[in-house]
Amino acid sequence: MCISSRLPVTEKQYIDPVVGPVVIRRNPRARRISLRVNRRKEVSLTVPWLVPVRTGLAFLESRREWILATLAKVKVQEETPSQDIEMLRAKAKAQLPPRLSELADKHGFQYRQVFIKNNRSNWGSCSVRGNINLNLRLVTLPEDLQDYVMLHELCHLKQMNHGPKFHALLESVCPGHAALQKELRKYKIR
Ligand SMILES: [Zn+2]
């Protein structure tokens, strides 16, 4: 066994004046100095045991531009999905409650409040208190499926189950609902 394999890997926080926090890792198995930026935007500098830390820091300084450019790219990757969600939420808030209210009026349902939710478990739900929750991704579905989900939840105000009475009620307000239900299964909540 060579001596280096028995030495531990050590880590130290270092604050670079330009790029910010950097983890300096002394790794006995490392053969050369290397820099890494991970998906959580953590910068790490690996320095082999036999190389002085100042040599590693000089390498870090020579790569500052690359680190900053890489950090900026990671940031873009992180921000895009949440921006999409915010846009979707705004669209959902503008479109879904008025349509739900219209469908409820048309078919004689009364709900308390409607909430737009960001979840991956359902397109909609109805609480025992008479509130309707709608998934913000509902706005990405075809309109007949949006209506189907809303009418389905409205029917739960009167029938809190999926029994024959529920399906008869749903069929009366949404003819051909079984086909729509089947169609909806093709869409995954993402
Ligand atoms: Zn249901």
Word description of this protein:
- With 190 residues, this protein is an alpha/beta fold.
- It has two domains: 3-62, no CATH class; 81-184, Zincin-like (2-Layer Sandwich).
- It is 45% helix and 19% strand.
- The chain has five helices and seven strands, in the order ββββααβββααα.
- The protein has helices at 53-62, 64-107, 143-156, 164-173, 177-184; strands at 10-16, 20-27, 34-37, 43-48, 114-117, 124-126, 132-135.
- The two termini are 51 Å apart.
- It binds zinc ion.
Overview features:
190 residues, alpha/beta, Zincin-like, 2 domains, four-stranded mixed sheet, three-stranded mixed sheet, 5 helices, 7 strands, 45% helix, binds zinc ion
Summarize the structure.
This protein has 190 residues and is an alpha/beta fold. Helix content is 45%, strand content 19%.
Q: In angstroms, what is the radius of gyration?
A: 28 Å
Low-confidence regions: none
**Which hetero compounds are present in the coordinates?**
zinc ion
SSE sequence, one letter per element: EEEEHHEEEHHH
Q: So what's the oligomer here?
A: single chain
Number of helices: 5
Looking at the structure, the CATH topology of the largest domain is: Zincin-like
Q: Tell me roughly what share of residues is in helical segments.
A: 40-55%
Percent of residues in β-strands? 15-25%
Write the layout of secondary structure elements.
Blueprint: E1 10-16, E2 20-27, E3 34-37, E4 43-48, H1 53-62, H2 64-107, E5 114-117, E6 124-126, E7 132-135, H3 143-156, H4 164-173, H5 177-184
Parallel strand pairs: 2-4, 5-7
Antiparallel strand pairs: 1-2, 3-4, 6-7
Helix pairs in contact: 2-3, 3-4, 3-5
Zinc ion is lined by residues 152, 156, 162.
